[in-house]
Prior knowledge:
By secondary structure, the protein is of the alpha/beta class. The protein folds into two domains: 2-259, Rossmann fold; 263-300. Helix content is 33%, strand content 23%. The strands form two sheets. The chain has a nine-stranded mixed sheet, with helices on both faces. Strands 8-10-9 form a three-stranded antiparallel sheet.
Amino acid sequence: xxxxxxxxxxxxxxxxxxxxxxxxxxxxxxxxxxxxxxxxxxxxxxxxxxxxxxxxxxxxxxxxxxxxxxxxxxxxxxxxxxxxxxxxxxxxxxxxxxxxxxxxxxxxxxxxxxxxxxxxxxxxxxxxxxxxxxxxxxxxxxxxxxxxxxxxxxxxxxxxxxxxxxxxxxxxxxxxxxxxxxxxxxxxxxxxxxxxxxxxxxxxxxxxxxxxxxxxxxxxxxxxxxxxxxxxxxxxxxxxxxxxxxxxxxxxxxxxxxxxxxxxxxxxxxxxxxxxxxxxxxxxxxxxxxxxxxxxxxxx
Length: 300
């Protein structure tokens, strides 16, 4: 059996701002449990609804060094099982006490997620879950492959562990002043060069993940080709072309439990595969009548 750890900044049903949360919420529960032990780790945001947080179970806590001059930073670990999937939550109220997962300050978010990336790797040996693969999602987890090849490279627990970096939206990369990165990562200066983390004299978390990950995926085959061009590549097309042998597009699926036309409460007319065409026509007529009514009321 293979052990897979999904590392992400958001996941349905706990916290969601976009499609990333849907993918991470749906994919683990649909992988064959007889072949894969899939677990998910996310920050323990205080904005996670109480109905879930109230059921989290305390596992343990420890202290780790963080950055260049900060010692004994608290890392708590909570856990919860949902729809057959084991979830871990990294707890630190200094970083994750919030009304929403992302702040208005990219500098602050970069510091928070650098902490999260290091805490994920520090937590696994304590939990005792040895991942064969760590699947990292978007820039917020980009430092995990970097730390695997630097800070944790000599840690025997991770010998043999591979990493995957999935790009959901290349536009967002986690870019900030290089000195800020050096201070918060405590990585050596030679890692902040144009072939590694440096990006136009700043540093770039997603770029780091793309450089150091063993494999790169994105949300469709089309997007995998597009991001290798200057128009869509968000100034990382050269790197993605260089890593094209390790880059694949895998089309996002959907969660059939959520998007089920037989039960979906957000549609008026429900249907199955047997009566899809006539019922869709009914739905279209119903929507058309509602639109005509709203247009009339708005313009009367």
